[in-house]
Design the sequence.
């Protein structure tokens, strides 16, 4: 019988530390597969922060540095400048990247630092208790907005791909979803493309992965996927916002 799939050697056993049905685990598997396929396991440096994103360092078998909450982009800046031969990337949640670390994120993108920022957008603070995040949608309940986010009180959800697309330096900006197989394949290809850009020393890439949070949304895993399709993916449209590599080859 032909072997069609094996567990990536870049994933540490026994497996995921995430809640049942959480797409963080799938995002981690895609990244592990890309690193293995590129053959760069020994030349990769993950900059992990705090929260659910920080747990990724416990399952990915590569060199890792932990940043304080929100400071992954600053740490990645130092890493890619001091070790330009490394594949450097951050793995962050939306609260970490777009709230606590917004200044670091935007300034690194504006400078065109040579690393890949991967954002997991599940529209909530996951590990810390389900508080409202910058990406929480209008009307969406959280532990800090039990009646739903109100624009006049908490403002509007932040769209990070669109914000970063206003800057000149970034090479690649894209948003993908992890809710169905066809979109998962696109997400993996986008991660690979961003990593290739970094390895070629061409600058900053931003990859946003739309995810769920069954635990803090108070839904089953299947219900959370439906919520994504009915709500979050309408608020956060998928697509490639910028790809200078493709534009320069036309």
Sequence:
């Amino acid at each position: 019988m032909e072997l069609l799939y094996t567990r990536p050697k870049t994933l540490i056993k026994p497996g995921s530390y995430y809640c049942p049905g959480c797409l963080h685990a799938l995002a981690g598997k895609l990244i592990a597969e890309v690193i293995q396929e590129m053959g760069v396991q020994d030349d990769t440096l993950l900059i992990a922060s705090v929260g659910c994103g920080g747990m990724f360092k416990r399952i990915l078998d590569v060199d890792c540095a932990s940043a304080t909450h929100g400071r992954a982009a600053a740490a990645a800046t130092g890493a890619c400048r001091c070790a330009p031969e490394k594949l450097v990337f951050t793995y962050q949640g939306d609260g970490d990247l777009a709230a606590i670390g917004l200044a670091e994120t935007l300034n690194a993108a504006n400078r065109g630092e040579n690393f890949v920022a991967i954002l997991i957008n599940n529209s909530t603070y996951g590990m810390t208790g389900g508080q409202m995040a910058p990406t929480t949608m209008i009307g969406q309940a959280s532990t800090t907005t039990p009646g739903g986010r109100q624009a006049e009180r908490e403002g509007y959800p932040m769209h990070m791909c669109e914000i970063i697309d206003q800057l000149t330096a970034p090479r690649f900006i894209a948003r993908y979803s992890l809710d169905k197989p066809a979109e998962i394949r696109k997400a993996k290809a986008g991660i690979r493309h961003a990593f290739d850009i970094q390895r070629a020393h061409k600058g900053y890439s931003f990859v946003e992965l739309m995810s769920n949070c069954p635990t803090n949304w108070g839904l089953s895993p299947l219900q959370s996927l439906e919520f994504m399709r009915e709500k979050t993916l309408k608020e956060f449209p998928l697509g490639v916002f910028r790809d200078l590599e493709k534009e320069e080859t036309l």
